[in-house]
Amino acid sequence: xxxxxxxxxxxxxxxxxxxxxxxxxxxxxxxxxxxxxxxxxxxxxxxxxxxxxxxxxxxxxxxxxxxxxxxxxxxxxxxxxxxxxxxxxxxxxxxxxxxxxxxxxxxxxxxxxxxxxxxxxxxxxxxxxxxxxxxxxxxxxxxxxxxxxxxxxxxxxxxxxxxxxxxxxxxxxxxxxxxxxxxxxxxxxxxxxxxxxxxxxxxxxxxxxxxxxxxxxxxxxxxxxxxxxxxxxxxxxxxxxxxxxxxxxxxxxxxxxxxxxxxxxxxxxxxxxxxxxxxxxxxxxxxxxxxxxxxxxxxxxxxxxxxxxxxxxxxxxxxxxxxxxxxxxxxxxxxxxxxxxxxxxxxxxxxxxxxxxxxxxxxxxxxxxxxxxxxxxxxxxxxxxxxxxxxxxxxxxxxxxxxxxxxxxxxxxxxxxxxxxxxxxxxxxxxxxxxxxxxxxxxxxxxxxxxxxxxxxxxxxxxxxxxxxxxxxxxxxxxxxxxxxxxxxxxxxxxxxxxxxxxxxxxxxxxxxxxxxxxxxxxxxxxxxxxxxxxxxxxxxxxxxxxxxxxxxxxxxxxxxxxxxxxxxxxxxxxxxxxxxxxxxxxxxxxxxxx
Length: 595
Hints:
The chain is mainly beta.
């Protein structure tokens, strides 16, 4: 009976497409349908899976009809597990290397499935007769594979073994029977005593009789057959990355701004909901800069950035994180919960957890940027006026007909750039910001860099070039043997001739022209934007400061196409573009200067 039971048993693993309905209702609907496929249950399976998903899976075993006692004995001897493998499903690799096995990686293994109580279904068909179907509902964590492939696929391989019990487990309380050969250890039954389990006694049977001891028999195991595994396409539902930005402002504790980018998959139409995002430091603290935004709805192709402020914990007893010697390095734990809706009844749930290192090492040049609080004087003016005789009230009406505060520029690559200036006059010595809006209207990925050029250095005039070219060069004095200073005592001494050449002095003074005084300075040296997907936009700022009262204009804003620069080189046509149609800047005196 047991041999026939093991021989006819089949094992399968099914991923139902319905993740909302209760498993009993799914099984009832599948029992009423006709099974024409190779799987054991008539349940619609999912074709597309997502990495980092909590996958709802059904582990199934079909047996011939048997009594309840036989079924309980079968479950007590059963060992059931499911291995989840990630493989490469690329037709190009199969054609190139037909005999080579595709790369595969074990991403998850669900063991000891038989410990939970299964759902038993009894059915009868004309082909198989009466059968029993055992169903376990389990959850599989679909981890990401350790290799990168263009077309990954997931296969579930169930494995079920039935192990026969040993003789000593059946008759461990019985006495020794006559004419029964001893085992290798004559005191083997004593190992079941409570006090001798840790150190069981041993007495060789060869010392008691001349008969050779009975060889130890291995436990007999039977492997149940499983149906052919089916392949499921798998893609990452989201790609996440973390970026850091040092805070140059003066603070009592070192702080860093973390930017967590979450990109929703663009080539599969899904409706996602970001339910929870958590960042935590091992030795420090985190502070969200975007409270109240979760849960957040997102669609395919969206790129969402979450801002967090990371504070380093200072103290003499602070232990360095992650076993590192540098105390400025800490461990950052990141967790994201994401819900996706593929259909009305298919709602996959994703959980992403990983750790990374964050460096709180201060910048090498702390004086760069805004000055710290310790070196500021209370009566020190913000800046000095360049022209003290100029009037305090700037002519605002003179620029009322200009194109400010917004100027838009469309590049040849399909990227639209808008510069928006403040609608109120700025003050001398006080930083102000221009809003920069970049929209990618092309069908390709865009990545640009904007370099502010408030004042472009003019080339030298023709007179200065001629003065440098024809200026006499310095020369050393030449001595003649007859040109010596005669002394009354001692030998003669060689004395250099005095060089007095007005041309040399004039050329030296005019070869280094003094640059003009700066009236407009850019605090943002370079602004990098991208990569931007098609139909995406990005907004940023350019910081500048003015040192002269009046109406000023920036010379240009240089735009560099970083993608074309890498592909074609920096000297290619269309890589650089200067925007000269920019908003006007109305500058008035500062408050301290008016007083």
